[in-house]
Amino acid sequence: MWNPTREGPHDTSPAPRRVRSLAAAALFAALFASSAVARAEPLGAGAATEPPSPPPAPTLSVASSPPATPAHPLESGTCGTAGLERVAEAARRGTVRITTHTNWGAGFLVDDTHVVTHVSVVGRPFKLRVHARDNLSIDAKVVFIDAFERIAILELDAPIPGKALELATSAPVIGSEVVAIAVPVDFGTREERFPTHRRGVVSDRDDDLLSTDALLGTNHTGGPLLDCQGHVVGIVVPSPSGVAVGQAPMGHAVPVGRIREARESVGKKPYQSKPGIVLGFATTFAGQFERGRGFIGGTIGIPMLFAEQWEFLPRFSAFVQVPAKGDIHLPLGRTDTLRLVGDVRIGYRIPLVSSPATVSLVPSIGAGWNWDFTKEKTYNLQLDDPTCMNQTTACSFRMVENEQESRTQTGAVFVGLGVHVHAMTFGYELRVLPSPDVKFIHQLSLGISTF
Fold this sequence. Notes:
Elements: H1 14-38, H2 80-94, E1 95-99, E2 104-109, E3 114-118, E4 128-132, E5 136-145, E6 151-156, E7 177-182, E8 196-205, E9 210-212, E10 224-226, E11 232-236, E12 251-255, H3 256-265, E13 278-279, E14 282-290, E15 293-301, E16 304-306, E17 310-321, E18 332-348, E19 350-353, E20 359-383, E21 397-421, E22 424-433, E23 439-449
Antiparallel strand pairs: 1-2, 1-4, 2-3, 3-6, 4-5, 5-6, 7-8, 7-10, 8-9, 9-12, 10-11, 11-12, 13-16, 14-15, 14-23, 15-17, 16-17, 17-18, 18-20, 19-20, 20-21, 21-22, 22-23
């Protein structure tokens, strides 16, 4: 029987002993559970003797697919931002546009007074103009053309200081990136659009030619091919007339070594310009109006340019009369006229705009000869039997055709005014035929010309 007086500091009653037993069992269970968790992943035979490995270092996640590669080497960007900035700065300083009355193209300054370009840009013997930045325009003349007739060097009438491009010390290696500079249409007016460029990779090279995978246009011809440092490594040559189906586009340039040779040859031998007349081809659709009659026809001719701005044009024309609409009356009649014209014209080209679409005003005078071949047909009704009117039988009629031909020829003089917009021509002429009676013929024309 329990006696409260016997309870002391060392109590051995059953209740406290049960509490201590439960606490010990809970501690054992916790230790057993942690050991089971540690052994949850099976280990190899020798794993128990190895120390635990340290946790792996954190790694960066990588995209499952690589970034898309550029579709064309032109966008490869191997020059980098700094390289392209150097190319743009060099192009702004040294690229120029070259114009004649019939052609245009690009070029670049190699010193204050000399410009290098391709021969095709200045291949015609006309007055040259070099257009630089800041609306600067200077006359120039050809002082050197190399033996291969690819490189032309021009001498300026006035210097352009501080804008020359530096020539590279050697040609670029295959696989290096280059930038071809072109002359934009709005050269000198839109600073933010310059330079117009096309990037590519050198695909082949030798002492006479560089090849790049960049497709270059006509506005690149004569312009510089620059490396990523802004140094000239070549002159762009004209693009081929066509590219075969399946053939990769290709641009070409004369390497810098040939440019150095040409530059060193300037002044050693006097350059003799090739005199002569430049032949072209012209055709027009024209209409003539004279005394209420209208004619339509066309002309073909061979224009000849000489002395820079003079044009001599022999031509041949043919016109047919347009039938006039009128009341039908008897006797019925129709007149057909064929007009053949041969003449020569002398004009003077006055340039209005020097741009890729060159605009010129051409006043002209001329003289020639007119041949008119006229066929007149008259249709009359005629009774088959004149006595039928006195008889009770019906009268019958038939149409009788009367034909008459005539030929006339006379001299002619004329004055005219034309507008040339690149290959298109628009013209008006007043022709005077003094005999057999004075006639004034107005002629309007629309056509094309090779210059």
